[in-house]
Automatic annotation (TrEMBL):
PROSITE patterns registered for this protein in UniProt: PROKAR_LIPOPROTEIN
Superkingdom of origin organism: Bacteria
Signal peptide start-end: 1-23
InterPro entries the record matches: Multihaem_cyt_sf (IPR036280)
Protein name: Putative repeat protein (TIGR03806 family)
Keywords recorded for this protein, A-Z: Signal
Length: 363
């Protein structure tokens, strides 16, 4: 006798605020991801069914988990909504607090870049969605550009992905300033410049040190690592992890805030096997307890001029190379090399406050 099964889908909608990006996300239960590792990346973002309902709402399907590192990478003031999905029956494993979780084949990391103050009218526009997909051969990149109607995002391939592109946008900053920029869509090589260890593509933010904090999930607040365990996405993690903080949280110590900022914005290049591993700096959070790794009293590989030679000169940000590089839009000397075209006002102010907060004479 033929059996007919009815699947009753109950959608539960919740709202929560993301700590750094002030994003609002709705979570729906009862929808399922479409994923064939031999066929991805798909030509259309919607094909994955990572999101349910109107695509532009970015309402995650069941088992598509939102996450947020303690501090967020600055990308010309773009806001982000981040999610992770893993195939059923697979789990990540803990390596070390300062190392990316070891993810199983089939893992997809989803990062949506958008603005909610596009002028005129303070409208919301999603510009791009970046995927990192782990195949048996390693991680691959998939870049999707959203259409103006915000109904679909198309895979960028061929010459467009090799060369990258730009979109001109005008948006309002938190302080009320109106800014016009050519927002950069990264090329494949630019993705690899930041997202690599040695010659292999690798994620950046999904280190236990960046996720060992609470997140406002639908219905409850929970530690993000514990949420991964509870959802069957992580085997376990230790109780004591030296963790980063939200660098915008002024209740935290100034040095911890700065080290957290540099970790998420700079450490992926300034670390062993990173793009800038030949330089003196080592800016991952676990290394910057050593002031020399931060550049304090260290002569820069490329001094700005005879009067600005130390990477950080304690007590004087105007004589510090790091401040000069973070506080300029000149692409020939600015840092980070990629990911921004304008200055991160809050990041620069944090650096300046930290440099000027102590006076340690350099020999």
């Amino acid at each position: 006798m033929k059996k007919i099964y009815f699947l009753s889908i109950l959608c539960l909608f919740w709202l929560f605020s993301c700590k750094n990006d002030e994003a609002v996300v709705e979570v729906a239960q009862g929808s399922f991801v479409n994923f064939n590792i031999n066929e991805v990346p798909y030509a259309k973002l919607s094909t994955y069914a990572f999101f349910t309902g109107d695509l532009k709402n970015l309402t995650p399907s069941s088992k598509v988990l939102p996450f947020e590192p303690a501090s967020s990478l600055f990308t010309d003031y773009a806001l982000k909504k981040r999610f992770i999905w893993m195939p059923a029956g697979t789990k990540a494993t803990y390596v070390a607090g300062n190392k990316i979780l070891e993810f199983p084949v089939g893992t997809v990391l989803i990062k949506n870049f958008y603005y909610n103050t596009i002028q005129p009218g303070n409208t919301t526009k999603i510009i791009e969605t970046r995927l990192m997909i782990k195949k048996s051969s390693g991680w691959i990149f998939a870049e999707y550009l959203w259409n103006d109607a915000q109904t679909e995002a198309d895979l960028v391939t061929g010459t467009d992905f090799m060369s990258g592109s730009s979109q001109n946008i005008t948006f309002k900053k938190e302080n009320g300033d109106i800014v016009n920029i050519d927002y950069r869509i990264p090329s494949q090589s630019e993705c690899l410049t930041c997202h690599k260890l040695g010659d292999d593509p690798a994620p950046i933010g999904l280190k236990p040190q960046n996720l060992n904090n609470n997140y406002n999930y639908p219905g409850n607040i929970k530690n993000q690592l514990q949420k991964l365990v509870d959802e069957g996405y992580l085997v376990s993690y230790p109780a004591n992890i030296a963790s980063t903080v939200n660098y915008k949280d002024t209740s935290q110590p100034l040095d911890i805030r700065l080290r957290s900022y540099l970790d998420i914005n700079c450490a992926h290049c300034h670390e062993q096997e990173g793009h800038c591993n030949y330089r003196a700096l080592r800016l991952n959070f676990s290394s910057t307890t050593n002031l020399a790794n931060l550049g304090v009293c260290v002569t820069a590989d490329e001094p700005i001029d005879p009067t600005i030679q130390k990477i950080i000169r304690p007590g004087n940000h105007l004589k510090s190379v790091m401040n000069f590089r973070l506080d300029t839009e000149d692409e020939s000397v600015r840092m980070p090399l990629l990911g921004r075209t304008i200055v991160d006002d809050k990041g620069v102010l944090l650096l300046q406050q930290w440099i000027d907060s102590f006076n340690q004479p350099c020999n």
